[in-house]
TrEMBL record:
GO cellular component, as recorded: protein-DNA complex
Keywords (A to Z) from UniProt: DNA-binding, Transcription, Transcription regulation
PROSITE patterns: HTH_LYSR
Name used for this protein in its record: HTH lysR-type domain-containing protein
Location of the HTH lysR-type domain: 1-58
Pfam families, alphabetized: HTH_1, LysR_substrate
GO molecular function: DNA binding; DNA-binding transcription factor activity
Originating organism: uncultured Rubrobacteraceae bacterium
Protein family (similarity comment): Belongs to the LysR transcriptional regulatory family.
């Protein structure tokens, strides 16, 4: 049994005339009649009464017509669903993200993707770049928003596309000796405990090594040390914390979207394209022109 046979039969059943049914389905009348005969032969019943000048449905034909409608409707729905899936409009997507992207690309990426692809079931989970990389390689995540470099072995397994870069700024306790400075050299923090730090200034900082940005800011507020955070985090309101620019050419935090190499998922491709199409200025704020309280939005 073929779908075209069902369509031919439905056309004859509705028109009750082989000639009009042939015109409607854009097929020669002999070919249409043959396919309907083949369908009846396969079913082992007569669907049409041809004994009179006008074609009529048999009892079996009336019952079969209702089922044929359901089958054809289901086929159309399946075809439409397959097309939506091929365009990445339906399915599931697991997104892993670094905590710092909460203050950068993540909110706008999720919002834009949900607006464009409401039929996709989206789940998000936070993690450090190492955990996200392992999760991507192991199939736990479909895509990740994270910060390169990804570590050994990831280069051959993952695709990577940079979507944003942003300079780092210093977050200091408000009673820090440098808290009143508008701009400070990174080397001036050499003797401070760094909650999150880099070695670009040529010194090895004592690091508390916190992955969560809000935890890092909380430790700064508690006087544990200073933190290097990206500029957008100047929007994070926290009493007892001030921000200052880093002198010279400050280190920059790169954000990338990553996915498994060779992943054929249309949903993954759709998400990557949405992220790549974001305005890089979205969810960003200008860095501090001087040291400010964390409760002040930087401008």
């Amino acid at each position: 049994m073929e779908l075209r046979q069902l369509r031919y039969f439905v056309a004859v059943a509705e028109e009750l005339h082989f000639g009009r049914a042939a015109e409607r389905t854009h097929v020669a009348q002999p070919a249409l009649s043959k396919q309907v005969r083949n369908l009846e032969r396969e079913l082992g019943v007569e669907l049409l009464d041809r004994s009179e000048r006008r074609v009529k449905l048999t009892d079996a034909g009336r019952v079969f017509l209702e089922k044929a409608y359901s089958v054809l409707e289901g086929a159309e729905e399946a075809e439409a669903a397959a097309a939506r899936a091929a365009r990445g409009e339906v399915g599931r997507l697991s997104v892993g993200f670094s905590g710092y992207t909460l203050y950068g690309v993540l909110p706008e990426a999720v919002r834009a993707f949900r607006n464009r692809f409401p039929g996709v079931e989206l789940s998000v989970q936070e993690g450090c770049t190492k955990a996200l990389t392992e999760g991507l390689m192991g199939g736990r995540f479909d895509v990740g928003l994270l910060h390169p470099p990804l570590g050994e072995g990831a280069g051959g397994a993952l695709e990577l596309e940079t979507v944003a870069t942003e300079p780092l700024i210093a977050a200091l306790p408000e009673d820090h000796p440098l808290a009143g400075e508008a701009e400070i050299p990174l080397s001036a923090l050499a003797n401070d405990t760094l909650v999150a730090a880099c070695r670009a200034a040529g010194f090895g900082p004592r690091a508390a090594n916190e992955e969560e940005p809000q935890t890092a800011i909380g430790l700064v507020a508690a006087g544990v040390g200073v933190a290097l955070v990206w500029e957008s985090m100047g929007n994070l309101k926290r009493p007892g914390v001030v921000y200052a620019r880093l002198a010279g050419t400050p280190p920059r935090l790169e954000t990338a979207v990553a996915w498994r190499r060779g992943n054929p998922s249309a949903v993954v491709r759709a998400f990557v394209e949405v992220v790549k199409g974001l305005d890089p200025s979205v969810s960003r704020v200008d860095g501090p022109t001087g040291a400010r309280k964390a409760s002040t939005i930087l401008s």
